[in-house]
Amino acid sequence: MEKVMAAKCSVSFSSYGFDGLNKSSSISSNNDFASRKKNLNLRLLFLPSRRLLPASCKIQQRNLSSHYKRQLGKKPPFERIRTRAKLRPNSDNESEPENSVSNDGDMEHTANHEKTFEDNVDTRVDVEHIDESNSGVLSASAVDANRDVDHAEIALTKALAINGEQLSGVQPEDLICMIKTAERNILLLNQARVHALEDLQKILNEKETLESEINSLERRLAEADAQIKVASEEKVHAEQLEDQLEKLRTELINRGGSGKSELELYENRNKISNEEALLARDAHVHSLRKEVDSLRTENLALKDDIQALKSLLSNLKNTDERIVTLENEGSFLDASMKELESKLSVSQQDSSNISTLKVECKDLWEKVENLQRLLDKATKQADQAILALQQNQDLRKKVDKLEESLEAANLFKVSSEKIQQYNELMQQKIKLLEDRLQKSDQEIHSYVQLYQESIKEFQDTLNSLKEESKKGISDETVDDMPWEFWSRLLLTIDGWALEKKLSNNDAVLLREMVWKRDRHICDAYVACKEKTEDEVISSFLRLTSSQPSPGLHIIHIAAEMAPVAKVGGLGDVVTGLGKALQKRGHLVEIVLPKYDCMQYDRIRDLRVLDATVNSYFDGKLFQNKVWIGTVEGLPVYFIEPHHPNKFFWRGQYYGEQDDFKRFSYFSRAALELLLQAGKKPDIIHCHDWQTSFVAPLYWDLYAPKGLNSARICFTCHNFEYQGTAPASELTSCGLDVHQLNRPDRMQDNSSHDRVNPIKGAIVFSNIVTTVSPTYAQEVRTAEGGRGLHSTLNFYSKKFSGILNGIDTDAWNPTTDMFLKVQYSANDLKGKAENKDSMRRLLGLSSADDRTPLVGCITRLVPQKGMHLIRHAIYQTLEMGGQFVLLGSSPIPHIQREFEGIANQFQNHEHIRLILRYDECLSRYIYAASDMFIIPSIFEPCGLTQMIAMTYGSVPIVRKTGGLNDSVFDVDDDTIPHRYRNGFTFTAADEQGLNGAMERAFNLYKSDNETWQQLVRKIMNIDFSWESSATQYEELYAKSVARARAVANRT
């Protein structure tokens, strides 16, 4: 019967979808109601699972001992746990009534209800007299039921298979009904689970009471055992007394004689007393035996009760396990419900995408055919190239043989030429000594004459100065005032113009007088120091007159400026180039964001203007405070936005998620400042992607407003950082996305939905530069241009590379106060003393002064050649040198790697790694190092090689970018001897680095005099900004001249 019912459940399960099935069958009798109290009543609920789950369980009292029954009778019997999961089939008629099958119905009655089996039916199995045979039958039926449930699950899996054509036959309405029905079934299962948990709590409480009853019964059993033991001991003692009495009798009989009558009398008395004692003892023993028998019977009853309780406890444990499985099945139903919903959504998406995929497939086939044709052509070309390569290899082998023969021949020539050169050098030195002796005599005589003439000139100049002071010459310029004075005066005039205290025309005239360093305005400013501001302005207005401009008006808009806001080389360039152009007579101004993390102590005369600049962003106008101050003698404007996002109050310069918005906002605010201040610059110079927005903003928005006098110069310091962003973000600063997101304007070359600020600056600027000539050639290739090579090649006429310089006032070993001993090219003893001092400072061995010291100061990033720096550490140690590294990495895994190397050499006497940046220690390393290693993979310019040579450290560099433009190999015969200043290698591998280091070590150890000459030569090279500033000046002048010529023609 159960197999038939299980088969019907399987059919109903597969036809109605995801339904819960209830089956009930009862095995009970109406006549044996009393016996049912001793048995276990179970009801099994069959669910779609591989295990049987309990629906209810009732444990009734067993026939225990009388004492135990009295205690147990005071407690209520266990309540039946009724958990009915009324699961509805997946049918439209949801109001169909639920039918149930009676427990005492027969097979015929059950057969009558099979037609309505899709309704929810409770299944009950009353198990009578549970024994081993019944348990076996129950387990067999459970196995059969599980087998049938497995068939139902297989049917369900087939019915729910979702792939391609099968899913198309199922209507969405049917799926939705199935899902709703499954949700209702899950709700019913959850309610059943709640009832089961409540019943489980009651069972656990009854379990605790049963355990306490068992403990009390065990204690009573122990007491009964003790009483039996005492009774047995008293019986043994009575038997011993009887034996002693018998012995006494025998002794009295043996004595005989006159005492016989007395003995008999005594014996009779003893008999009477003994008989009484025996009677009393026998009665006591008899009562003890009865009590022992009763205890034994009760003990047996207790044991039976304990066994019954243990069986009940085992049933309780089984109930716990079944409840756990019920919870697992509930979670399984939840997961299956979610899978159905996800598969339904995926199927809908797949059906909508099939048509588009077909169209794309056709296009792809066409493209594949085109590619196949191209591949055939390419294979033909490749075959031709292979033939050419083979021919080239044969030629290469012949050339190698010829070179070997030439090298063998040159060896003999070199030896003879060296001897001749040595003789010639000795003769030259003798002649030089003779010439110096003659010159020294002449110089002494000339010094005497010069001294006499200088006395006369001093008297003449003194008289002329007196006369000039009397005449009061007022037309000459003032050269004895520092640049800070003129910058402060210029900022004061600009502040008056922004605060509307001066007209724009008067401000222009006063700026020109400051620009010329006119004595009139200098004297007026000095004379008005203690006067009020209105009096100073009125005195300045009396000085206004049209004056010709002495040079160009140049404004740098940048994100960095050394030393107040420096991250990399950009800050050094802005300051160094600005100072060099200022010395050449140009008016130079800087516009910076006002970061919260700037070094404010390096800004002189910092103050806020009593005026605000309004700029547009995100459809609104925002106010900006303007601060002015001087940095390294240059006038600087600091813009502080009043924006709710606090763009420049982040504790760092770069690296924020909204950098695109931050710097596009700043670029527009900077141009708004120039417009509202009435400035008419000749050149606006912007740097890197952070201020590249200036170029399109200037021509699209501000040139039509009247800020149209300038030419735009853009300098990219590293093409690896381009600041690309989604095109929609360009609208925030007011630019037209539809006009600019085009291939010929700002659209990124590798992604059509993104804009590239660097590309926009290249397109919209009049002058485009980078920081070295070699790097300018490298970025015009696909490998070096980072996607912009085609744009740079298209605009190659306005693109050039100018090698950066260094600030020789800041980097000068003769005046560097961070060094222990200052030194120069003419006196290198101080360099040796600094080397010894730094060795002691870092704990390195100083036993041998001639041990070469190799220095390296760098950011630990892949661009700098991490694998070559790592190799150089071990190679230096192997070649008998010392190595010092200073720097850190923003990349965590590289930082951890070098921390491991630092720990490895923590106490080593020749290797030291300091994984941080320390400016004082960096100057020490420059001064102490004999060699300086820079194995960069690519290097736009590089300043460390220039600083190292200024401090007398010979560079070992890879030939790339600015390194190739500033370091020339000492063994390269194609380079004039006067330009050779270091050791270079080409391939970015360990072999190339080893060759350069070996040549440097051999020269250092074998020829000290030649090494010292090399050190003096590199220290005398001019790496200042003078040459670079001249090239920028020429570019500026040509661009401005072309613009003025066009304006004159129109």
Automatic annotation (TrEMBL):
Pathway: Glycan biosynthesis; starch biosynthesis. This is starch synthase. Residues 193-251, 285-329, 361-468 form a coiled coil. Pfam families: Glyco_trans_1_4, Glyco_transf_5. It catalyses: [(1->4)-alpha-D-glucosyl](n) + ADP-alpha-D-glucose = [(1->4)-alpha-D-glucosyl](n+1) + ADP + H(+). InterPro entries: GS/SS, Starch_synth_cat_dom. Keywords: Coiled coil, Glycosyltransferase, Starch biosynthesis, Transferase, Transit peptide. It is an enzyme of class 2 (transferase). CDD domains: GT5_Glycogen_synthase_DULL1-like. The keyword Transit peptide applies. Residues 64-109 are annotated as: Disordered. Its EC number is 2.4.1.21. Residues 553-793 form the Starch synthase catalytic domain. The keyword Transferase applies. PANTHER family: PTHR46083, STARCH SYNTHASE 4, CHLOROPLASTIC_AMYLOPLASTIC-RELATED. Belongs to the glycosyltransferase 1 family. Bacterial/plant glycogen synthase subfamily.
